[in-house]
Amino acid sequence: MTRGLRISIGQHSDRGRKAVNQDFHGILIPEEPQLSLKGIAAVLADGISSSTVSQIASESAVKSFLMDYYCTAESWTVKTSARRVLEATNSWLHAQTRKSQYAYDRDKGYVCTLSAMVIKATTAHIFHVGDCRIYRVAGKALEQLTDDHRIIVSSEQTYLGRALGINPQLEIDYQSVDIQAGDTFVLATDGAYEFVEPRFVAGTIDEHAGNLDDAAKAIVEEAYRRGSDDNITVQILRIDETPDADSGVFDQPAALPLPPLLEPRAMFDGYRIIREVHGSSRSHIYLALDAETDEPVALKIPSIDLRDNQAYLKRFLMEEWIARRIDSPYVLKPRSRAARRNYLYVATEFVEGQTLRQWMLDNPRPDLETVRGIVEQIATGLRAFHRMEMLHQDLRPDNVLIDKTGTAKIIDFGSVRVAGVAEAAPKSADAEILGTVQYTAPEYFLGEGGSPRSDMFSLAAICYHMLTGHLPYGAQLAKIRGRSDARKLQYRPAIDPERGIPGWIDGALRKALHPDPYKRHEDVSEFVYELRNPNPAYLATRTTPLLERNPLLFWKLTTAILACAVIVLLAALRLR
User: Fold this and answer.
1) Tens digit of each residue's pLDDT (9 = 90 or more) over 425-463
2) Which residue, 238, 430, 472, 521, shows the most beta carbons closer than 10 Å to its own?
3) In whole angstroms, what is the distance from residue 100 CA to residue 95 CA?
């Protein structure tokens, strides 16, 4: 059996010598699949003493984090999800202050400090603003993982430099820490850590290892005994077990039996098979009719050749999961049925049309406007992936369908990288090149992994191919083995007066297809914009070298010149 994430927790809070407890804290341990996809969250907030409403701020901050974080997209990383939640909370708290009687005195408004930790897979993600602290127990000492955002004016006067709700924009510290079984973390407010020595905290946790609530209570009571004049809160998290590298929501690809190859007219799991649409070494796709609704669907079953490949089966399982989280008219939609599924397969809408590859063969010289229209649709579909922190990674003409109305749809999600899922994957998972070489960005060959700019490279390569009939780098991409090879890539200009390709279109393509991802457009939308709106930077006259415009003619002329030089030299020798 695979191991999952297990922790032990303890927490205690007391108002101490104050009339009201302005601290607030909480820990949420979800069930699967959210445990694997989102992790365990612990949050601690401390209201500021100058405000009489800051306890509302600290309570709201903790509750909104624990509730809203688990409502964010499952495909997002912890960092993206938590930041979105904290930024929204900050805006709400700031707005409450602006609407209140404390609009011009922020120190009395809805303000608090906050420290949060999300434990996912084998990593602890730490978010921090203010002067709460997060420690890791190191033997008999404590390692402080956060920095106090407190400005020191004198030995007797300090003030908060950063807090939640004090400004309309939020600047929050983030770091990630690798964890292992046995690691123990402590979250504490200043009412605790300013009055209790680290040695006492570590010793108390060790003494009460069987009941961390007792440990937290003992630390709070000791801080009070030593004269703490503030609210006192302590949270303790001990990592009891970390998950295996291959555990998680997709760790059992064989939970459903693998289907056999299907035959026309056969009944399969409530579908009537019509015919095989496509078969390859990666999968088999069939046109079928839903026996209940008589609606056409596409059924995709795993390849016979790869059914012993666990990594392949996990990616296959993810395809429908991914499709259900993408909402775009330019991305293939999944089909669901109320009946229980009895085999491992993917059911999607059936698109009556052809692949972009076949369309390109049928339309070898498309006009510029038609190409723009197709590229813009694909780009819209890509942006739907990118908003969910997903990379398609295998965008090519075979993975785009053109239906009878001319609508383009991105298909095949077997190579999609989901950032939120990849956080729990082995580090080597990103090293595998899953896309097709001719359309794959150079950074993948260098082992650097991809980004939205990598998908844009693939889109630009498709655009270039449609306009020119060939690829921008020919077969050079497959030869990349290092950075020197990437620097040697020779871009073939797309300028062609006969095809109506102006220089500014070539400029946009050249930038989107640059070997260095940081020299491409920042976003797919910027590339698409430049396909319709001439960038002045590309309108300057540029004399394209003959080697780039016509390499064959260049080498013919070079050979002829060398031949003439040889003849002249031979003639000169004879004259001697």
Assistant:
1) 645 444 455 666 789 999 998 888 899 999 999 999 999
2) 472
3) 9
From CA 298, how far away is CA 64, in angstroms rounded?
A: 41
The encoded tokens of residue 180 equal 């292992």
What's the whole-number mean pLDDT along residues 363-390?
A: 96
CB neighbour list of residue 251: distance below 8 Å, 6 or more residues apart: 2, 244, 314
d(CA 351, CA 12): 58
Whose tokens are 């999961």? That residue is 321
Query: Contact 70/38 with Cβ under 8 angstroms?
Result: yes
Instruction: Give per-residue pLDDT as tens, 266-299.
Output: 999 999 999 999 888 888 999 999 998 999 999 9
Least confident of 214-223, 231-240, 480-489: 480-489
The superfamily CATH assigns to domain 353-544 is: Transferase(Phosphotransferase) domain 1 (1.10.510.10)
Tokens for 181, please give them. 């079984």
CB 177 within 8 A of CB 82: no
Residue from 438, 399, 421, 402 nearest 300 by CA: 399
Parallel/antiparallel/unpaired status of strands 353-355 and 173-178: unpaired
State the fold for domain 267-349. Phosphorylase Kinase; domain 1 (3.30.200)
Residue 403, number of CB atoms within 10 A of its CB: 12
Model's pTM, two decimal places?
0.85
* Three-state secondary structure readout of 408-445: EEECCCCCCEEHHHHCCCCHHHHHCCCCCHHHCCHHHH
pLDDT band at 544 (very low <50, low <70, confident <90, very high): low
Radius of gyration of the CA atoms of the chain, in A = 31
More confidently predicted of 100 and 43: 43
Joined together, the tokens standing for residue 347 give 């059911």
- Say which CATH architecture domain 6-241 belongs to: 4-Layer Sandwich (3.60)
- Do residues 431 and 447 make contact, with C-beta atoms less than 8 angstroms apart? yes
